[in-house]
C-alpha cells in the first residue's frame, strides 16, 4: 500500500478501532492488520508517534494496566476523539465518493 495514501487515514482507522474498546499497541497493530485482511501492517515505529500525537490532541488517553504480570499501556478514545472520528468519517465518505465518481463509480 502506498504510504502517501495511508498517511491521511491511519489516525482515523486507529480511532475507529479504539471506538469499540481500549487496546494496547500490539493489539492495535494486529487488529488493524486483521480487519484490513493484511493490507495495513503498521510497524511500532509508525504506530507510536501517531498515538502520541493523538494523545497530545486529546483524541485518546493512555493508562497502564498489568495483565498476567506484564505492564501494558492501553489507549482509549476520548469524547473529543469520538467527535473527531465522526468528522473524519464524513470527510472520508465525501472523498471516497468524489474519487469513485472520477474513476467511474467503483474504481479500477
UniProtKB/TrEMBL annotation:
**Record-linked SUPFAM superfamilies:** Winged helix' DNA-binding domain (SSF46785)
Top-level division of the source organism's lineage: Bacteria
Domain (Transcription regulator PadR N-terminal) ranges = 14-87
Q: Which InterPro entries match?
A: Tscrpt_reg_PadR_N, WH-like_DNA-bd_sf, WH_DNA-bd_sf
UniProt cross-references to PANTHER family, sorted A to Z: TRANSCRIPTIONAL REGULATOR YQJI
In its UniProt entry, what is this protein called? PadR family transcriptional regulator
Which source organism? Paenibacillus rhizophilus
The upper taxonomy is: Bacteria, Bacillati, Bacillota, Bacilli, Bacillales
Amino acid at each position: 500500500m502506498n504510504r502517501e495514501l495511508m498517511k491521511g487515514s491511519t489516525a482515523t482507522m486507529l480511532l475507529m478501532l479504539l471506538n469499540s474498546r481500549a487496546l494496547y499497541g500490539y493489539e492495535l497493530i494486529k487488529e488493524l492488520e486483521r480487519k484490513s485482511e493484511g493490507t495495513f501492517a503498521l510497524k511500532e515505529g509508525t504506530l507510536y508517534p501517531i498515538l502520541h500525537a493523538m494523545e497530545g490532541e486529546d483524541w485518546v488517553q493512555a493508562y497502564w494496566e498489568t495483565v498476567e504480570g506484564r505492564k501494558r499501556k492501553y489507549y482509549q478514545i476520548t469524547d473529543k476523539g469520538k467527535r473527531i472520528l465522526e468528522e473524519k468519517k464524513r470527510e472520508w465518505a465525501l472523498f471516497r465518493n468524489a474519487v469513485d465518481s472520477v474513476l467511474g463509480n467503483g474504481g479500477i
